[in-house]
Amino acid sequence: MNTKNQNKKESIENKTSFDVVFGFDMETDIGSYTPYYNGVQHGTPFILEVLEKHGVQATFFWTGHAAENNPNIVLQVKEAGHETGCHGLFHETLGDEIFPLPNNMPILPEEVEGRITRATNIVKEVSGTNPLSFRCPRLWGSTKVVHILEKLGYIADASFPLYFYGEPFVPYHPSGEDWTRQGEMNILEIPNFCDLTMESQDEYNRDRDQWPLFRTESAEFLMEKVENFISFVRSRDKRPVLCFYLHPWEFYPMPQGAISFGECSVKPLPFITKNCGPKAVKQFDELCRLLKERGGRFVTAKELAEEYK
């Protein structure tokens, strides 16, 4: 083993620190609730400013539609030194549905490969970079999806919703029979962390999740969840990896209340858009500071996957 790889191995095994992967899901405003890209256009610059201030590199997961409709932002992110990943073709369900959503049926199994392939090609064409890291919309992945990703050359998938499955709680190479279990596939599955120490009051364990606490509560509040997760993982003699999922629309003021579309209106629950804009920017800045102060090592999804080979 050469010196560089030895240093990587020692860094992974060092239990006195932890890794942080910031993932930004580059999609339409408020996920599937609108067709707009105000967040991508106006929220992304605030994200880049905070990341530059703290010297942090992140992974930006682009839907194909977002990339081809915002090529200037794709290149701005790339030129800032961040990783370009993929988030599917549209903000649609590609994997296993965890809980039902109205008027939002999952993509048919026979369509999944074609849509991921098309999305990958669009992101590559717009960015000039072959994406190697992926994240399913809503963190709804599947065994079928990881097989497709590995076939397409992806080395990292940051789709695993730890709040729902509970384990594995550290990055792992999934089984070809069940993506939620350790196996022999080459792709690295990176769980999105949650508070595993709390007793959930929700049938899907969503109250254990990290999102969107940094802005609905505060960075300090979220750090309590971070500390709980770190303690939980270290008590089992593993190195913690904190994978975050965030969105550009959280960093720009979003509509409050009902959103009208002529034939209907959509009214997200208040917490979905609470404190989007300046407060989210301020709290994200504080979160970066607190994670650095705590000893976090910031890496992209691609970098982490390369280290776990």
From TrEMBL:
What's one GO MF term for it?
A: hydrolase activity, acting on carbon-nitrogen (but not peptide) bonds
Q: Pfam families, from UniProt? A: Polysacc_deac_1 (PF01522)
Domain (NodB homology) spans 28-179
State any GO BP term from the record.
carbohydrate metabolic process
Source organism superkingdom: Bacteria
Q: What is this protein called?
A: NodB homology domain-containing protein
Organism whose genome encodes this protein: Mariniphaga sediminis
